[in-house]
Protein: Iron complex outermembrane receptor protein
Organism: Novosphingobium kunmingense
Amino acid sequence: MAFASFKRVRLVTASSILALGALMGGHAARAEDAPEKDDAQASEASQEGVIVVTARRREESLSRVPVAVSVLTAEALSSRSINSESDLQTATPGLIVRSTQGSSQFNYAIRGQSIDAFSVSQPGVLTYINEFQTNALSAGSLYDLGSVQVLKGPQGTLFGRNTTGGAVLFSTARPEFDDLAGMVRGRAGNLGAWQLEGMINAPVGEGVALRLAGMVDQRKGFVKNLVNGKQLNNVDRWSTRGSLRFKLGDAIESTFVGEYGESKGNGDPLLLFSANAPGSLGPNGQALPATLTTFYSPILDSIAGAGAYAALQAAYPGSPDGGYGAFVDVQRALGTRATYLDADTGLAARSWYVLNTTTADISDDAQIKNIIGYSNNRNVSLFDQDGSPLPFYGYVQTLNRIKSFSEELQLSGKALDSRLSYIVGVYYSKESRRSGQDFRYFDLGPVANPVVAPMFGAPSLPLANHLEGDFDVSSIGAFVQTSFQLTDKLSATTGVRITKETNAFTEISGFAPFYPAGIKERRSDTKPSWTLGLEYQATRSLFLYATYRGSWRGGGFNYNAPPVSASAPDGGNRFDPETIQDVELGAKFLGDIGMVPARLNLAAYKSWVKKIQRVAYITFPDVGPGGATLNADGATFQGIEFDAEVSVAPGVKIGGAFNYADPKYTGNRQQTLFGTFLEFSTFADVTKYSGSGYFDVVTPLPGNAGDLRMRFDVYAQSSLYFSNYGESGAPGTKLPAYELVNARIGVDNIGGSGLSAAFFAKNIFDKEYYVGGIGLGTAGGYNLAVPGEPRTYGVDLTFRF
């Protein structure tokens, strides 16, 4: 561990100890008896199926919180075999887990808010672990969790300025003071897959408990590279987590959590999905880029002389006679389980974090909470960035290293005879990110290289570049949110956060002649986020709400454009903050329909976004292909989200969810970026329709043999674009609709022994589909897609004690 990182860990620990001392010194005596629940809480507590969420930074029932929330409890995570981020998407319609350059690099998208590959924007959907915002959540972190909550829509008041689309809250299972307990789970299945997961919870003294957990996940790849015989898309990762929880008296509680994980493997393939033909035109008559289909084809002979393409083809097995454009048809015929790639692929990633949460009850109705943490993430990947056996990109390596620290202090409680609930807080964070790329490209073979190189002002081919920059983003803010009970049934919520964000950028190594090393730039933005809402408990079972919210995400700098204080369309490298306003109307029902217990949630929303941040992939003059974040004029997003669950009989539940989204660009949709014409025409990561359904049965077997559990799930989504220029500069970026069917059948607690056994299967019908992609049609004239997982199945054995 580097010395600087060790100092930050010591800071987390020391600050937590100081916070404990301050909280103990200012502690007021806590009443022996907890406050009584109001009538609404008491009546709901008597109903079956109450789910507790923390969407407003306090524990509330899901059916009474005025936010669209999808929740996966610890039991749901286990019973549905949710082990990866792609599983989260199929379990939570409306959440898109987007893979851009492979399954190891993913982004969350909610209600159209996301980021593209190579973007320097902050994510529109942030991840939190125990209320600590971190990018160090590894691909193997989904074990021993208490719950996963997906909050939809802007959450900028309580969760920071960048949560314009929503937040994904991961809660680790906390240590328990009562008994020694443990769990061991083993899974084995096809593709040589095996997983081992374990947990032990141990009281280690009066008011002190320790919880240790870990997992190992292995699986062979499912996409065969026919050039070298390697099976790509393998899984090779492990992670371990420790949690220490202790109480000081009756009023103060503190929990430390630390996690470390590693992932490696032979890489994820990017499959060629479409390409522009030479001479093709866009809808406005503009010439579309077609670099690869022109130079990597028999047309090369007319440029470099007879036999040039044949010589190139002979050096790279799998290259089709018709060239790069013909390989589109070859890949389509191969499907998603095989390809031809000439460049190396690979992955090496590690991440870790340490955090502390300390709470102190300073009175019967007031509590102080301190959340402090540090995280560190490093990801190095190798890609074949052209998705073919031809050597346009012979080598691409990306490096992303993110270090982040944050400190948050809250005061929350109730006042005015418990009619007023409030939370007040201050927040500071600092994120240091280094992003870099090494790549070699445009190798046309021994015959063509010396002929073509002078055309590009280069001494020789292939070309090469190293691009690297440091981003230091600090944020300081203060927030307050209140909920006041106007009547027994009607409440009003108001909240505001003021945040100042400072973004400092240093170029380490850049595209000559644009960026000599060492140039530094800096900007600061200060903006508010807010929430205004009304909540109405119409009946014991029916809850209605209306919310108006606003949030934003900060501006920044592109590290492959000229260091000019102007936007990218004006020849510079800056982009401005994006702002969003949102209206949401919702209804939640938890009660009986006739004699049938049911839970129903409905939300309708509309969002207005100004200066929406988007990435443009272009070929920079005298530089080469790259991406730049820019601001479009604006956009609107509107949609409906619905989910339901009914208990048709004891132990028998039927449920499902449905999402509809309708986005539109507003204002001027056309821009010219360094000579490349662009038109925003589609929305990446937005599917118009998505939905799921499930059938869940739990019934005791005779003779105390155990509990039989059967679960069947289906998930479906309509087509999805992976480019914002899908009907203009990047045609052929529309992924087809697909549906997946999963099942799990097993027996829990066999004979009262603590042993459970189950058989599971995912993608039962072995559907071939894509989970994302990168649209480079506006740069080299081609587009790549990431394949989804095939049918997987296996057995799961769990022993609890």
Notes: The longest helix spans residues 3-25. The chain has a mean pLDDT of 88.
